[in-house]
Write a structure and sequence with these properties.
Helix content: 40-55%
CATH class of the largest domain: Alpha Beta
CATH superfamily of the largest domain: Spore Coat Polysaccharide Biosynthesis Protein SpsA, Chain A
Order of helices and strands: HEHEHEHEHEHEHHEHHHEEE
Largest sheet: 10 strands, mixed
Radius of gyration: 25 Å
Structural class: alpha/beta
Number of helices: 11
Shape: elongated
Distance between the termini: 29 Å
Number of strands: 10
């Protein structure tokens, strides 16, 4: 630490506790990183609080890592966690939360769709006694009504199937207290949805609406093909297995009733006999049984793998205090 940094960033060198940690997972966001950093500094510095910007590089390969290393060298309020490879957004958030030391923690995306200008409103709500400040998005600027309502319908359907208890229109843009963050760390589930976890824990919650903006640069990677596996991945294994077994039981009941009606038709000579008439119900039954049994076994295997492997590997951690290497959890 040099005297120039102490003069330029006096709020960082005070001895009082960190007031705010902003955790931002990044994957190939080199084009927007500089704008995000400048916007965060512009919004938070006038608040005159001690804060840290905690960026998590989730195995980027577009120059994001080099830009983050430069930021951490020049600005002592920047902490950078470098993951060994691409683990996914939820794992990157978990790695960042494990390093956050602020009394309040904000998590947000690094594509500028979550506006830093909302952070003072979130802090104000937290100062009034709430533990969790969840941001609820309005329609994205420039988004067509079809895409907006199609996304909402898909989220509602998946939420009902996987029983996540996820609040409507919720995203990973929120503030929570240190106590809530500690409680979240006690949850054994590896892949989790933040909003549903806090709703389950029963913390005092405030919901604020905001207008979500388009990406400042680059292209988004959202699509139903990627959204459905990501959504199911946030459900715990037991919930998915229960969903599959419940679906299997329902299909089994429907097939039993269908077979009973079919047998009545055959006995009444409404339809003719033949091999197909006798084999089709059996093939349908065994196909459904194998499908749901295979799905349940697949997620039992996922539980086994999650118990064996760490959620993430940190290859390097750069902050003003020290630089360390290779941590995992």
């Amino acid at each position: 630490m040099n005297k120039r940094n102490q003069t330029q960033y006096p709020e960082f060198y005070r001895n009082d506790q960190l007031e705010l940690s902003v955790v931002i997972p990044l994957f190939n966001e080199h084009e927007v990183l500089g704008l995000m950093y400048e916007k965060l500094k512009t919004v938070i510095t006038p608040l005159r609080i001690r804060y840290e910007l905690l960026f998590v590089d989730d195995g980027s390969h577009d120059g994001t890592a080099h830009a983050l290393a430069t930021l951490s060298t020049n600005d002592p309020s920047v902490t950078v966690v470098f993951l060994a490879r691409h683990f996914g957004k939820e794992s990157a958030l978990a790695a960042g939360l494990a390093q956050a030391g602020g009394r309040a923690v904000v998590i947000m995306d690094g594509d500028m769709q979550d506006p830093p200008e909302a952070i003072p409103r979130m802090l104000n709500a937290w100062h009034h006694g709430t533990d969790v400040v969840r941001m609820k998005r309005q329609r994205l600027i420039g988004e067509t009504p079809f895409r907006h309502y199609a996304g909402l319908c898909l989220d509602h359907i998946l939420n009902a199937i996987f029983d996540l208890g996820m609040p409507a229109d919720s995203i990973d843009f929120m503030l929570f207290s240190q106590e809530a963050a500690t409680a979240l760390g006690l949850v054994a589930q590896r892949r989790r949805h933040m909003a549903s976890m806090f709703a389950w824990a029963g913390f005092r919650e405030t919901v604020l609406e905001y207008q979500r903006s388009p990406r400042a640069a680059g292209t988004h990677s959202w699509s139903p093909r990627r959204h459905i596996p990501d959504f199911s991945g946030k459900a715990d294994c037991h919930t998915i297995i229960e969903t599959l077994l419940r679906g299997g039981m329902l299909c089994g009941l429907i097939m039993m009733l269908t077979s009973l009606l079919y047998a009545c038709f055959v006995m009444a000579a409404i339809t003719g006999g033949g091999f197909f008439n006798s084999a089709a119900p059996a093939l349908f039954f065994w196909g459904g049984l194998l499908f749901f049994s295979g799905g349940a076994c697949k997620h039992v295997l996922r539980c086994f793998r999650q118990a064996r492997h760490p959620q993430y590997d940190i290859c390097r951690l750069e902050r003003a205090h020290a630089a360390t290497t290779m941590q995992h959890a």
